Amino acid sequence: MRVSSGVPGFDGLVDGGFPDGRLYVVSGPPGSGKTTFCSQFAAQGARNGEDVLYISMHETKEGIREDMSGYEFGFDRALDSDRVTFLDSFSSDGRRFFGLPGDRRDRSGVTNRLTGFINSRDIDRVVFDSTMLLRFLLDDDEDTMIQLLSSLKRTDATTLLISEMTDPSAYSEEHYLAHGVVFMHNYLEDEGMRRGIQVLKMRGTDVDTDIQDVEFTDVGLRVGSAATVTH
Protein backbone atom coordinates (compact mmCIF):
# COMPACT_ATOMS: atom_id res chain seq x y z
CA MET A 1 0.00 0.00 0.00
CA ARG A 2 1.18 3.52 -0.84
CA VAL A 3 0.73 6.58 1.36
CA SER A 4 0.26 9.93 -0.35
CA SER A 5 2.62 12.70 0.73
CA GLY A 6 -0.01 15.38 0.18
CA VAL A 7 2.57 17.30 -1.88
CA PRO A 8 1.51 17.72 -5.53
CA GLY A 9 4.09 16.22 -7.88
CA PHE A 10 6.05 14.28 -5.25
CA ASP A 11 4.22 10.95 -5.23
CA GLY A 12 5.11 10.39 -8.88
CA LEU A 13 8.79 10.36 -7.91
CA VAL A 14 8.27 7.39 -5.58
CA ASP A 15 5.97 5.14 -7.58
CA GLY A 16 2.73 6.61 -6.23
CA GLY A 17 3.63 7.45 -2.64
CA PHE A 18 5.55 6.26 0.40
CA PRO A 19 5.34 2.50 1.09
CA ASP A 20 3.24 2.44 4.25
CA GLY A 21 4.40 1.49 7.72
CA ARG A 22 7.99 2.58 7.16
CA LEU A 23 10.44 5.17 8.45
CA TYR A 24 11.63 8.06 6.26
CA VAL A 25 13.99 10.98 6.81
CA VAL A 26 13.33 14.41 5.30
CA SER A 27 16.63 16.30 5.37
CA GLY A 28 17.92 19.65 4.22
CA PRO A 29 19.19 23.06 5.28
CA PRO A 30 17.05 25.67 7.07
CA GLY A 31 14.39 27.24 4.87
CA SER A 32 14.30 24.44 2.31
CA GLY A 33 10.72 23.37 3.06
CA LYS A 34 11.10 20.38 5.38
CA THR A 35 8.45 21.44 7.90
CA THR A 36 6.04 22.50 5.15
CA PHE A 37 6.48 19.14 3.39
CA CYS A 38 5.79 17.22 6.59
CA SER A 39 2.84 19.45 7.51
CA GLN A 40 1.27 18.67 4.13
CA PHE A 41 1.88 14.98 4.85
CA ALA A 42 0.07 15.33 8.20
CA ALA A 43 -2.83 17.30 6.71
CA GLN A 44 -3.27 14.69 3.97
CA GLY A 45 -3.56 11.99 6.60
CA ALA A 46 -6.26 13.92 8.47
CA ARG A 47 -8.20 14.43 5.22
CA ASN A 48 -8.03 10.68 4.64
CA GLY A 49 -9.49 10.01 8.08
CA GLU A 50 -6.18 8.64 9.39
CA ASP A 51 -4.83 9.16 12.90
CA VAL A 52 -1.76 11.41 12.94
CA LEU A 53 0.84 12.15 15.63
CA TYR A 54 2.76 15.40 15.12
CA ILE A 55 5.73 15.85 17.47
CA SER A 56 7.63 19.14 17.57
CA MET A 57 10.72 19.46 19.73
CA HIS A 58 11.15 23.19 19.06
CA GLU A 59 7.72 24.73 18.42
CA THR A 60 4.37 24.93 20.19
CA LYS A 61 1.08 23.98 18.56
CA GLU A 62 0.14 27.63 18.14
CA GLY A 63 3.59 28.41 16.80
CA ILE A 64 3.42 25.79 14.05
CA ARG A 65 -0.16 26.85 13.32
CA GLU A 66 1.05 30.42 12.77
CA ASP A 67 3.98 29.24 10.64
CA MET A 68 1.60 27.36 8.31
CA SER A 69 -1.14 30.03 8.35
CA GLY A 70 -0.05 31.46 4.99
CA TYR A 71 -0.90 28.20 3.22
CA GLU A 72 -4.25 26.79 2.19
CA PHE A 73 -3.69 23.04 2.38
CA GLY A 74 -5.89 22.57 5.45
CA PHE A 75 -3.27 22.30 8.18
CA ASP A 76 -5.25 24.51 10.55
CA ARG A 77 -8.34 22.32 10.15
CA ALA A 78 -6.21 19.22 10.64
CA LEU A 79 -4.79 20.54 13.92
CA ASP A 80 -8.29 21.28 15.20
CA SER A 81 -9.65 17.88 14.19
CA ASP A 82 -9.72 14.81 16.39
CA ARG A 83 -7.45 13.08 13.87
CA VAL A 84 -4.25 14.93 14.82
CA THR A 85 -2.51 14.64 18.18
CA PHE A 86 0.08 17.40 18.62
CA LEU A 87 2.84 16.93 21.16
CA ASP A 88 5.59 19.43 21.93
CA SER A 89 8.43 19.53 24.43
CA PHE A 90 7.21 22.76 26.06
CA SER A 91 3.90 21.66 27.56
CA SER A 92 3.56 19.75 30.81
CA ASP A 93 2.36 16.72 28.83
CA GLY A 94 5.41 16.96 26.60
CA ARG A 95 7.82 17.20 29.52
CA ARG A 96 6.23 14.14 31.11
CA PHE A 97 6.46 12.32 27.79
CA PHE A 98 10.04 13.19 26.87
CA GLY A 99 11.60 13.81 30.25
CA LEU A 100 14.34 16.41 30.63
CA PRO A 101 17.75 16.71 28.94
CA GLY A 102 20.42 14.98 31.00
CA ASP A 103 18.01 12.56 32.70
CA ARG A 104 19.95 9.41 31.87
CA ARG A 105 17.54 7.18 33.75
CA ASP A 106 14.75 8.10 31.37
CA ARG A 107 16.40 7.60 27.99
CA SER A 108 14.81 4.23 27.27
CA GLY A 109 11.55 5.54 28.70
CA VAL A 110 11.20 7.96 25.77
CA THR A 111 11.28 5.05 23.33
CA ASN A 112 8.80 3.00 25.33
CA ARG A 113 6.33 5.86 25.77
CA LEU A 114 6.51 6.93 22.14
CA THR A 115 6.06 3.49 20.60
CA GLY A 116 3.48 2.59 23.23
CA PHE A 117 1.45 5.68 22.34
CA ILE A 118 1.67 4.97 18.60
CA ASN A 119 0.61 1.35 19.03
CA SER A 120 -2.16 1.96 21.57
CA ARG A 121 -3.74 4.73 19.47
CA ASP A 122 -3.30 2.89 16.15
CA ILE A 123 -1.48 5.93 14.76
CA ASP A 124 -1.21 5.85 10.96
CA ARG A 125 1.20 8.75 10.37
CA VAL A 126 3.93 10.30 12.51
CA VAL A 127 5.86 13.54 11.97
CA PHE A 128 8.90 14.07 14.22
CA ASP A 129 10.54 17.52 14.12
CA SER A 130 13.47 17.23 14.58
CA THR A 131 16.19 14.64 15.14
CA MET A 132 18.73 17.34 16.03
CA LEU A 133 16.77 18.36 19.12
CA LEU A 134 15.96 14.75 19.90
CA ARG A 135 19.70 14.09 20.05
CA PHE A 136 20.06 16.96 22.51
CA LEU A 137 17.30 15.48 24.66
CA LEU A 138 19.08 12.12 24.61
CA ASP A 139 22.47 13.73 25.37
CA ASP A 140 23.61 12.65 21.89
CA ASP A 141 23.57 9.03 23.05
CA GLU A 142 23.99 6.98 19.87
CA ASP A 143 22.75 3.68 21.31
CA THR A 144 19.50 5.22 22.55
CA MET A 145 18.95 7.00 19.24
CA ILE A 146 19.38 3.75 17.34
CA GLN A 147 17.03 1.99 19.76
CA LEU A 148 14.38 4.67 19.26
CA LEU A 149 14.59 4.62 15.47
CA SER A 150 14.59 0.82 15.35
CA SER A 151 11.49 0.76 17.56
CA LEU A 152 9.72 3.28 15.32
CA LYS A 153 10.42 1.03 12.34
CA ARG A 154 8.61 -1.81 14.09
CA THR A 155 5.36 0.13 14.46
CA ASP A 156 2.69 0.14 11.74
CA ALA A 157 2.90 3.92 11.33
CA THR A 158 4.39 5.72 8.35
CA THR A 159 6.91 8.07 9.97
CA LEU A 160 8.67 11.18 8.67
CA LEU A 161 11.68 12.39 10.65
CA ILE A 162 12.94 15.91 9.98
CA SER A 163 16.72 16.17 9.99
CA GLU A 164 18.80 19.35 9.63
CA MET A 165 21.54 18.66 7.11
CA THR A 166 23.33 20.80 4.52
CA ASP A 167 25.37 18.07 2.80
CA PRO A 168 23.35 15.22 1.25
CA SER A 169 26.39 12.92 1.48
CA ALA A 170 26.84 13.46 5.25
CA TYR A 171 24.82 10.51 6.54
CA SER A 172 24.06 9.87 10.21
CA GLU A 173 22.33 7.01 12.05
CA GLU A 174 18.82 7.96 11.00
CA HIS A 175 19.75 8.00 7.30
CA TYR A 176 21.23 4.50 7.43
CA LEU A 177 18.33 3.09 9.44
CA ALA A 178 15.54 4.75 7.45
CA HIS A 179 13.75 3.02 4.59
CA GLY A 180 13.99 6.22 2.57
CA VAL A 181 15.73 9.60 2.51
CA VAL A 182 14.34 12.75 0.91
CA PHE A 183 16.67 15.74 0.62
CA MET A 184 15.43 19.32 0.27
CA HIS A 185 17.87 21.59 -1.59
CA ASN A 186 18.16 25.34 -1.12
CA TYR A 187 20.92 27.13 -3.01
CA LEU A 188 21.78 30.09 -5.25
CA GLU A 189 21.80 29.56 -9.00
CA ASP A 190 21.79 32.12 -11.84
CA GLU A 191 21.54 35.02 -9.42
CA GLY A 192 18.48 33.58 -7.74
CA MET A 193 17.49 31.10 -5.04
CA ARG A 194 16.62 27.63 -6.27
CA ARG A 195 14.73 25.13 -4.17
CA GLY A 196 14.64 21.50 -5.10
CA ILE A 197 13.82 18.05 -3.80
CA GLN A 198 15.67 14.78 -4.35
CA VAL A 199 14.87 11.21 -3.36
CA LEU A 200 18.25 9.82 -2.29
CA LYS A 201 16.93 6.36 -1.49
CA MET A 202 13.64 4.51 -1.16
CA ARG A 203 13.87 0.79 -0.46
CA GLY A 204 11.69 -1.43 -2.61
CA THR A 205 10.70 1.44 -4.89
CA ASP A 206 11.68 2.51 -8.39
CA VAL A 207 12.48 6.18 -7.81
CA ASP A 208 13.51 9.22 -9.82
CA THR A 209 16.70 10.41 -8.08
CA ASP A 210 17.12 13.61 -10.11
CA ILE A 211 16.71 16.96 -8.35
CA GLN A 212 13.22 18.29 -9.02
CA ASP A 213 12.18 21.92 -8.77
CA VAL A 214 10.09 22.92 -5.76
CA GLU A 215 7.79 25.92 -5.65
CA PHE A 216 6.24 27.45 -2.54
CA THR A 217 2.63 28.32 -3.45
CA ASP A 218 -0.49 29.36 -1.58
CA VAL A 219 -1.45 25.68 -1.31
CA GLY A 220 1.98 24.58 -0.07
CA LEU A 221 4.88 22.93 -1.87
CA ARG A 222 4.57 21.77 -5.46
CA VAL A 223 7.16 19.54 -7.11
CA GLY A 224 8.39 19.24 -10.69
CA SER A 225 5.80 19.95 -13.37
CA ALA A 226 3.21 20.55 -10.65
CA ALA A 227 5.27 23.56 -9.57
CA THR A 228 4.30 25.37 -12.76
CA VAL A 229 0.60 25.26 -11.94
CA THR A 230 -0.75 28.67 -10.99
CA HIS A 231 -3.79 29.55 -8.92
TrEMBL record:
GO molecular function, one term: ATP binding
Xref: InterPro entries: AAA+_ATPase (IPR003593), KaiC-like_dom (IPR014774), KaiC_dom (IPR010624), P-loop_NTPase (IPR027417)
Positions of the KaiC domain: 1-231
Keywords: ATP-binding, Nucleotide-binding
Any single Pfam family the record assigns to this protein: ATPase
Superkingdom: Archaea
PANTHER family according to UniProt: UPF0273 PROTEIN TM_0370
Protein name: KaiA-binding protein
Native organism: Halorubrum tropicale
